[in-house]
Specification:
Layout (H helix, E strand, L loop, with lengths): L19 H12 L4 H9 L2 E7 L17 H8 L2 E3 L2 E2 L5 H10 L3 H4 L20 H6 L4 E6 L13 E4 L5 H6 L1 H14 L5 E6 L53 H30 L6 E7 L14 H4 E2 L1 E4 L10 E2 L3 E2 L3 H9 L44 H9 L1 H6 L3 E5 L10 E5 L3 E6 L10 H4 L2 H11 L10 H5 L4 E5 L17 H17 L10 E4 L9 E4 L5
Parallel strand pairs: 1-6, 1-7, 2-10, 3-11, 4-5, 4-6
Antiparallel strand pairs: 2-9, 3-8, 7-9, 12-13, 13-14, 14-15, 16-17
Helix pairs in contact: 3-9, 8-9, 9-15
The chain binds 2-acetamido-2-deoxy-beta-D-glucopyranose (NAG) (7 copies) and calcium ion.
């Protein structure tokens, strides 16, 4: 047990935001503490290091992958609660990062798609994000690496070295450069609490923008002629025959080579995470900093990034709290969402969410996520199984289905996707419980769109080539059913964790479908989703409908 752990997180000393009475109470409590030196230090500071990787998945030992070598993430997992059912709220870079930093889903914060270039999506001007909220409470904020959100007024950082100020290759992939910048941030002023966000660009693909460095920029800085060196990186290479091919990727030589390249880039990310932890330790902040590691969206493989299937939504999530060392290395199977990260950081820093409205709505913006700190006390010993497995027999499930009330009591996370690139309009909404996934494809009459980056990837080219040439394609879908989706997709995850059989039209699932649709609709309504009434009706919420919103029918047959 750490000397400064009081057992109740509400009583963690933090003079800056406490009333005089609370401070007096806590001072009294502290007098009974034996190790005064540590306590005094902790009183001064309560910090956050949030590390967000780019398109990384579960390729690490803590999530059952023993082929991809990630010793530093493994180390971090040993001092974290490992959330084995963590989900992004949208599987697209800028929208996801905006949701992480605001606690609001993409349709509520306005970041409907990518921020860069001609996509140019931005959050609404009056949205409040973590860096702005905590800065107002005296916390120093820093961002090193990929930002990919805007406008600056919504996402202000005191210290920022991003793709907007220098090359993303340097601030996002050169781990030596990242380490130098993080050290600079930690050295600048270590008397104020800080919120430091490190946005690794690894292991994002780069075949589309920098093919000279390989499909995943796995050669950048590896010391070979023309590649430069990254002094802190020791590349790890893999035999394509050895990689773990996930169920949603075709098992072909092209896909295996793609995965092997991804693994090599993951070694740079992993070593970067190790460097960040070493910097935190040498700055003396290992014991007063909440460390969060996650990735923004699913891996850039079929059914992954830009999809709301689990390969697109499932994320690694390690939360390391020095206040919760008893649960270090334990797993938590609660459903965690990226929408929980803003409430988690706010609780840790003891800053409350501001009371304000977005786009002239009469109701204040509310966070639909939850703080994860209370769950750090309820970890389970590692069961070694990251997949949902509730051990419900078919018979039990029959009973379960009849009692919709039980389903209602199941926890849920939500997802909302509108675009990725500006041309890729494909709005989807989803609710996921431990037992079910329901996806609403609003634009289901159109083929699912493919982004420029993924299009050129070997794994997708292989699917196109094999489909065109009618060659065997050992994949769990066909190109046609990947493109054309039903309006409602319901998956029974106990029997079908790979989401292969849509049961939305099956009679015995109609109660579940109705229940999940109602909950999804209520969440969309609560988060002011402009897509609330699609595709069969039009939302009216102003003028004479200002006080009672309505979905007015289009008679379009949908
Ligand atoms: C953090 O706290 C633990 C437990 O009290 C202690 O063993 C360790 O030395 C501390 N580390 C630092 C860097 O202060
Ligand atoms: C460090 O932070 C304190 C508190 O906000 C401030 O008064 C001081 O000027 C800062 N020092 C530096 C070197 O930035
Ligand atoms: C990475 O950054 C270090 C420190 O700035 C620099 O010396 C090195 O050349 C960079 N490597 C690449 C590949 O750009
Ligand atoms: C973590 O797991 C261990 C067993 O490995 C268990 O004894 C302990 O109670 C768990 N801690 C928490 C906080 O759940
Ligand atoms: C938020 O602000 C509004 C408008 O000023 C006020 O009516 C409401 O009571 C406030 N809510 C809270 C929880 O403070
Ligand atoms: C796909 O086919 C094109 C055109 O024949 C070829 O250039 C490319 O190498 C193939 N790619 C894969 C991954 O099979
Ligand atoms: C929809 O949201 C509005 C505004 O927050 C709320 O007043 C209303 O009760 C909600 N309707 C439903 C059915 O949840
Ligand atoms: Ca991404």
């Amino acid at each position: 047990m750490l000397p400064y752990r009081f057992g109740n997180s509400r009583f963690i000393p933090h003079n800056r935001y406490k009333t005089h009475l609370e401070v007096t109470m806590m001072t009294t409590m502290m007098k009974v503490m034996v190790t005064m030196v540590m306590v005094t230090r902790m009183v001064m500071s309560r910090n956050v290091l949030m590390m967000v990787s780019d398109d990384a998945g579960l390729e690490m030992k803590a999530y059952g992958n023993t082929v991809c070598k990630t010793p530093h993430l493994d180390e971090l997992a040993k001092r974290s609660t490992v959330f084995t059912r963590a989900f992004t709220s949208v599987s697209s870079c800028s929208p996801s990062r905006s949701a992480i930093l605001t606690g609001l889903p993409t349709h509520q914060n306005g970041m409907y798609g990518l921020h860069q270039g001609y996509h140019h999506f931005n959050s609404f001007d009056d949205v409040r994000s973590l860096p702005g909220i905590v800065a107002a409470a005296g916390v120093r904020t820093g961002l090193v690496g990929k930002k990919h959100v805007g406008p600056d007024s919504v996402y202000p950082f005191d210290f920022a070295h991003t793709e907007e100020t220098e090359s993303i290759m340097q601030v996002g992939r050169n781990i030596t450069r990242i380490r130098q910048l993080v050290r600079q941030f930690l050295d600048t002023n270590n008397t104020r609490p800080f919120f430091l966000y490190v946005g690794f660009h690894d292991p994002h693909r780069c075949g589309h923008t920098h093919p000279e460095y390989g499909q995943f920029c796995e050669k950048f800085g590896n010391g070979e002629p023309g590649m430069g060196t990254i002094p802190d990186w020791h590349p790890v290479t893999y035999d394509p025959a050895q990689v773990v091919v996930p169920y949603f990727v075709q098992d072909t030589p092209a896909a295996r080579e793609d995965l092997a390249a991804q693994y090599t880039t993951l070694s740079r990310l992993d070593q970067g995470v190790g460097l960040m932890m070493a910097e935190l330790a040498s700055a003396g902040h290992l014991n007063d900093t909440l460390v969060v590691y996650t990735s923004d969206n699913g891996i850039p493989f079929p059914a992954g990034r830009t999809n709301l299937y689990d390969p697109g939504l499932v994320e690694p999530l390690l939360v390391s709290s020095p206040q919760h060392s008893a649960s270090w290395g334990n797993t938590s199977t609660i459903l965690a969402s990226h929408l929980d990260l803003t409430p988690t950081v706010l609780e840790w820093l003891q800053v409350s969410y501001p009371n304000y409205t977005i786009i002239n709505k009469r109701q204040p913006a509310v966070l639909t996520g939850k703080s994860l700190l209370p769950y750090l006390d309820h970890g389970q010993p590692d069961a070694g199984d990251p997949k949902p497995s509730l051990d419900v027999s078919k018979q039990e499930l029959g009973v379960w289905l009849q009692d919709v009330g039980i389903i209602r009591s199941e926890p849920a996370v939500y997802a909302s996707h509108d675009l990725h690139e500006v041309t890729m309009y494909y709005p989807m909404r989803a609710i996921r419980t431990p037992s079910y996934k329901l996806i609403h494809n609003l634009n289901y009459k159109m083929p699912f769109p493919i982004d420029q980056d993924f299009y050129l990837s070997p794994v997708f080219q292989d699917i196109l080539n094999r489909t065109r040439a009618s060659l065997p394609l050992p994949w769990y879908k066909t190109l046609r059913n990947y493109y054309y989706r039903d309006e409602w997709e319901l998956y029974d995850l106990h029997f079908d964790p790979d989401e292969k059989f849509n049961v939305a039209h099956k009679g015995r699932y109609q109660d579940v479908l109705g229940e999940l649709r109602a909950r999804l609709w209520a969440w969309q309504n609560q988060t002011y989703d402009p897509w609330l009434c699609g595709p069969g009706a039009v939302l009216q919420d102003s003028g004479s409908y200002a006080t009672h919103h309505a979905c007015l029918p289009l008679y379009n047959g949908l």
